[in-house]
Amino acid sequence: MRRGTVAGTTARLLAANGSARWRTDLQAGLKRYPGRVHVVTGSEDPLSPEGRSLLDGLPHATVTVIAGAGHHPQLTHPEEVARAIRERTP
After folding, report:
1. Can you say whether residue 43 is alpha, beta or left, with left for phi > 0 and alpha for psi between -120 and 50 degrees?
2. Does the structure show a pLDDT above 60 at 1?
3. pLDDT band at 3 (very low <50, low <70, confident <90, very high)
């Protein structure tokens, strides 16, 4: 977070996350995206019903749930996250 503009960019994106318009624009962009989407989440930080509904409407979306992981599975369960990515990479 100390390199260049990383901290400022992170703060700006986190602040935007609270904006209903930003979330609506992001969801619309995701619906238009033609490629594959793979979401990795922890069982202790499940997708919201809204998020699950959005992903269920995407033809090429998959979700992997890492058992016992929370909001940052890449930090707490790196091997499982790496395995999930390897298994979904063509």
Report:
1. alpha
2. no
3. low
Would you say residue 18 has pLDDT above 80?
no
Give this prediction's pTM. 0.74
Task: Clarify whether residues 18 and 54 are in a common domain.
Answer: no
28 and 41 housed in the same domain: no
What domain range includes position 67? Answer: 35-90
Helix (H) or strand (E) holding 52: helix 49-56
The number of helices, as runs of H, and strands, as runs of E, in the chain is 5, 2
Do residues 23 and 44 both lie within one domain? no
Q: How far is CA 37 from CA 40, 54, 63, 69, 73, in A?
A: 10, 11, 8, 20, 17
